[in-house]
Amino acid sequence: MDVRFTAGVTDWTLKDMPDPQGLYQTAIELYGLEDVPVMVPNIRDAVGVLMHPSEYTQKITGPVPVIVDVNLQLWTFGPDERRPYGSRVYQTGLRSMKLLPMTGAAKDLFTKPATKAAEGKGKRKADGPTGQASPGKKGAGQSKTA
After folding, report:
1. How far is CA 98 from the centre of its chain?
2. pLDDT tens track of the chain, all 146 residues?
3. What global pTM score does this model have?
4. How far is it, in rounded angstroms, from Cα 55 to Cα 44?
5. Distance of CA 97 to CAs 24, 91, 123, Å?
6. Interatomic CA distance for residues 136 and 139, integer angstroms
7. Rounded to an integer, what distance in angstroms lies between the CA atom of residue 66 and that of residue 135?
8. 97: which of 27, 42, 81, 128 is 20 to 30 A away, CA to CA?
9. Where is the composition biased (Basic and acidic residues) (predicted)?
């Protein structure tokens, strides 16, 4: 479904939302919710312009680096008959997201191939034969002059 939205991005309603599976349409028909205002997610393109959800597929065509601001919440529930020790639920909510530019100097920043250091996953390579400590770390009982 191609949504053509001509009002400002802050003036949209439930009927204006992309609905490929028809889930919103079902609620609209059952409860008459077509004119219920919907809050625009604070998602901005690389130049800072607020994006309407119908524009996501045109403006986000592949992997794009982003900066996100999220709200992390921890809900702690006391014990009950099903969970004698209680339970915790972690929730992440998006506050804002901005697409980063993929042109000019920024393109090189995000498209450089991985270096050997990144491929090592934090492990050091052995510098000497098996059984010898690396120059940066001395085994127990070894002196610095050895």
Report:
1. 11
2. 344 445 555 678 888 887 888 888 998 999 999 888 887 789 999 889 888 877 888 888 888 899 999 999 999 999 999 999 999 999 999 899 999 987 766 666 666 665 655 555 666 666 655 655 555 555 555 555 54
3. 0.51
4. 11
5. 24, 17, 33
6. 10
7. 40
8. 27
9. 118-127
